[in-house]
Specification:
The structure is a single chain. Helices cover 35% and strands 22% of the residues. It contains twelve helices and twelve strands. A hairpin with a 5-residue loop joins β8 and β9. α2 packs parallel to α3. The chain is globular, with a radius of gyration of 19 Å.
Length: 362
């Protein structure tokens, strides 16, 4: 493709929290964001959540993913596409491309390895729509961190906002995009996001997450445990840097009460973000928070206390925080079609601006 016309793209994201998948439609030419269309979230049932957890273990043990899980994950995404289109009176012909992230089961950029499960070719056949998948591999193969991958989309959305600005995405892992007054970008994973809090809550209360941060609100931060956690060598590494979900473990708060453990892990997520500020050229004038973490009132309060700038959810500027990453991969799919970079030296540490993605036609 040479003509940069505006396309309708549908992005799909299954995040490290493993709670479900998001689907979102974006109109874009790969540089400017036009209309942000309808979006929806599908929740994974408990049995499938456990299957995804099993895939993390298989990947950690260097085993291939189960073909049945890859197929089922892909077909669940195909159903999410059909449901979104049907609910809004759209036909498959109304969508030019799908950006299919898949589900990350292993991320070891130091070994030039990142693995997202999902079958792009099967998704294209199942939906009848061209699919771009495998967004991160080329970046990692070139020496990049392979994450974060949403900064270019954040910058496109934030064109008219006051800067320097930080966009903080709190999924299973938390990452920040810093946007300078001149449009320059810096991005990296700050540390754990919701993953440890979710795992701890599930283990100690049998609830899937600390909904609203209510469990943490009943507890007290164990200052000694938190200080020990914040001495992790990751926090001293300068960016670019990224994390795998398994780099930190809930057992760090083993022995604490459910509420105190949740409060301490919430303090870890906020403290890690505060530590990240030292790697930014200038302090942000504002923090905009997206991802599931912004629904956690205890976490938002901890961030507000830890950061020396206003902390707001992205809804305060009209963005949709639950589906922002799905929108980002719609945007990146169009950039991939046009051969535009998906990552930059300042966002992933890749040696030069690098495109990526693999196109599958129906």
């Amino acid at each position: 493709m040479t003509e940069r016309r505006t396309l309708t793209a549908l992005g799909l994201m299954s995040g490290t929290s493993m709670d479900g998948m998001d689907a979102a439609i974006v109109r874009t030419d790969g540089e400017r964001v036009g209309d942000l269309g309808p979006a929806a979230t599908s929740v994974y049932d408990t049995a499938f959540h456990l299957r995804l957890q099993g895939e993390l273990l298989r990947a950690y043990l260097d085993n291939e993913p189960k073909a049945e899980t890859v197929r089922d994950l892909t077909l669940r995404h195909a159903e999410a596409v059909r449901r979104l289109l049907d609910d809004h009176g759209l036909a498959t012909s109304d969508v030019d491309v799908i950006g299919f992230h898949g589900h990350t089961v292993l991320h070891r950029p130091g070994n030039q390895l990142t693995r997202q499960i999902g079958d792009g070719a099967l998704l294209a056949r199942a939906t009848g729509i061209p699919v771009v998948s495998d967004f991160r591999s080329r970046d990692v193969a070139a020496g990049g961190q392979g994450a974060p991958f949403a900064p270019l989309f954040h910058a496109a959305l934030a064109t008219d906002l006051e800067k320097p600005l930080a966009v903080l995405n709190i999924g299973g892992i938390a990452n920040v995009t810093w946007i300078g007054e001149d449009g320059s970008l810096i991005a990296f994973d700050t540390g754990p996001g919701n993953a440890l809090i979710d795992d701890w809550t599930r283990r100690t209360t049998r609830r899937p997450m600390d909904e609203g941060g209510r469990l943490a609100a009943r507890g007290q931060v164990d200052a000694l445990v938190l200080a020990t956690l914040l001495r992790h060598p990751y926090f001293r590494l300068p960016p670019p840097k990224s994390l795998d979900r398994s780099d930190f473990h809930r057992d760090a708060v083993k022995g604490l009460s459910p509420a105190d453990g949740a409060a301490t892990l919430t303090g870890l997520t906020a403290g890690a973000v505060a530590r990240a500020v030292e790697f930014l050229p200038t302090p942000p004038r504002r923090w905009l928070v997206c991802g599931g973490g912004r629904h956690n009132a205890s976490l938002m309060a901890a961030l507000d206390q830890a950061l020396e700038a206003p902390v707001d959810s992205v809804e305060s500027v009209g963005w949709r925080g639950d589906v922002l990453e799905a929108q980002a991969f719609a945007f990146l799919a169009v950039r991939s079609l046009y051969g535009l970079p998906l990552s930059l030296p300042s966002t992933t540490g890749v040696p030069e601006p690098t495109t990526g993605g693999v196109l599958h036609r129906p």
